[in-house]
Please model this.
Amino acid sequence: MEQMTRTGLAWDEWFMWHVTGVAGGLVPYGNYVQPHHFVEDPEPKRRIKHLLDRSGMTARMVPVKVRPASEAELCYFHTPEYVALVREGSKGEGGMAGPFTPFGTDTFEIASRAVGALLECVDDVIDGKIDNAFAFLRPPGHHAQSHQGLGMCIFGNIAIAAHHARYIRNLPRVAVIDYDAHHGNGVQEAFYSDPSVLTISLHQRTWFGIGGEISERGEGAGDGSSINIPMPSGTGDGGYIAAFERVVIPALRQFQPDIILVAAGFDISAFDIVSTMMVSSEGFRTINQMLVDAAKELCGGRIVLELEGGYNPWATPFAVLASIEALSGVRTEVKDPFLDFTVGSIDNQLLDHQAAVIEEVRVAFDL
Ligand SMILES: [Zn+2]
Model:
């Protein structure tokens, strides 16, 4: 009998207490914009945790310690000046950490714990205490830059974790896959000239003007180690699965990573409110299963998912649960009630203009 997978879960209720305040969703309120929440609001993400609990998934997972990252760890990626800005601002009422990045009281402590929780997941997987892990983090981190926050992200959770795996734990090769709807700019910037860290970002092309063109492919010794797959708006399960089959998995096989880190953004869901992609919970299950299988083939099963975007309060929980089911090998009895709305659409299949983008990337990187 195959041994049960030990899947870690890093979670802290305090993550949900990071305050982003009042806004018109993505923009400041005022004039004709009626006040509402800022879009990166805790309640949709807390509802994900509620489904993990209610489905019995939480009880099947191994709790991972949550601890604050040290300032030295934060400075693997960030400047001391930026870390100080967040630290000092968090003692009062907060402020802006960068464009589209409000923060509040205690955000420094909370965001430091998000980083520390992810580092613990990485350590526990490397040390064999668990087989793989899901880091249920908030605030998200993949847009944060060395000198400022960006796009709701305070600290670069995954960039710091990749540095930790590569240069503190001394793994020779680290792969980072980012399937959030928005470009994974932070980790790309951190390792742009470093051939020992492969970064692959799939995202909605030109979305929010963050970048991620095919031509951004690394520089110097790192040329070819940044892969961007800018998918057209409306890409669904077929397009994402094809991109994984034709680019992501071949690139991983060529690179031979020692660990796979995943910036798991659920805003490519068909029901998400900030992006216009079409992925269903079964699409998430499939692409994550492909990554889990690649990890088993290439690096002893070592894979860590960390939560980035995902803003629909009722559909996102099912997408995350399906992904954790792929990670853990545990199938709960939960059926996604939103699935039929998505998979019945012809636009959920691979379309020609999506295949053309994937082919352009495949050729550019000789995969
Ligand atoms: Zn996003």
The longest strand covers residues 197-204. Residues 7-11+40-64+130-144+151-364 form a domain with the Arginase; Chain A fold (CATH 3.40.800.20). Residues 180-182, 265, 267, 308-309 surround zinc ion (CB under 6 Å).
